[in-house]
Amino acid sequence: MSEERTPAVWEGAAEALPGVARIAGTAWLRSASWAIGSGTRSARNLARAMTDPAAAGDLVRGVAEDVAEASRAISSVASAVSSGVPLPRALLQATVTLSSVMVPDEAPDRESDLSLRERGEELLRRSRDVWSEDEAHPAYGRILEELAPDEARILLLLLRGGPQPSVDVRTGGPVGMVSSSLVAGGLTMIGPRAGVRYLDEVPAYLNNLFRLGLVWFSREQLEDPLEYQVVEAQPDVLAAMHSVRFPKVVRRSIHLTPFGVDFCRTCLVDENEQEDLPEQGIPQD
User: Fold this and answer.
1) d(Cα 44, Cα 54) in Å, to the nearest integer?
2) Long-range contacts of range 103-106, CB-CB < 8 Å, 24 or more positions apart?
3) Is the pTM of this model over 0.90?
């Protein structure tokens, strides 16, 4: 295995210096001056230090730690040379120790570094910017990452086909007038109508869409009663009705929220289809 080659810049520096003291002194000055510069290289940190005593203390402590680290590295160079290590090799080894000081930190995430109040002030500042070209809600990108493909199909069904019927099967009869129990809830035809791949996951899909603020489960029924006849003829609805002696069907509906409508128009349909989409009313409970 070949010996690691010493960089030419270190060879030249070693030949130009007359002694270990000169090397140590020069290295200390360079390292200390860089450490002070690295501690104040951020305009944000410097501005905070001028107005915030705590921030100023943190800045001073950071500079002191950097200088101390540089001093320890220089002492190790002197010790290595006095024990017989060639000077270029000792300098090269010292760079490993100094790397924590000489390599600038990565720029911190500005958003995570700001306090909630500062982020709120920035948001209000942007709201007053009449030249801002922001069009889509900032949450839309995150929502897209949290949607399943089947859920996108459900959203398009609600956008293009309007609110969808939903029914609950409850116990009825004389006992049901006093205390009615839910037999099966939220039965719909949304899965088949949307052409989803996993029909059994439709209740979970709807729950996720509700969590994201895209759909609303209304207690009101649709104006057209014919919308419910197909749903009430489905096997799962009939099975729930036949499971009790006196069944009662409660008609409800599922809508897009105004937020959901805007999300679908922005993210799921192209501009050519915008004018052909039906108007979406706000559900009233």
Assistant:
1) 14
2) 104/38, 104/41, 105/38
3) no
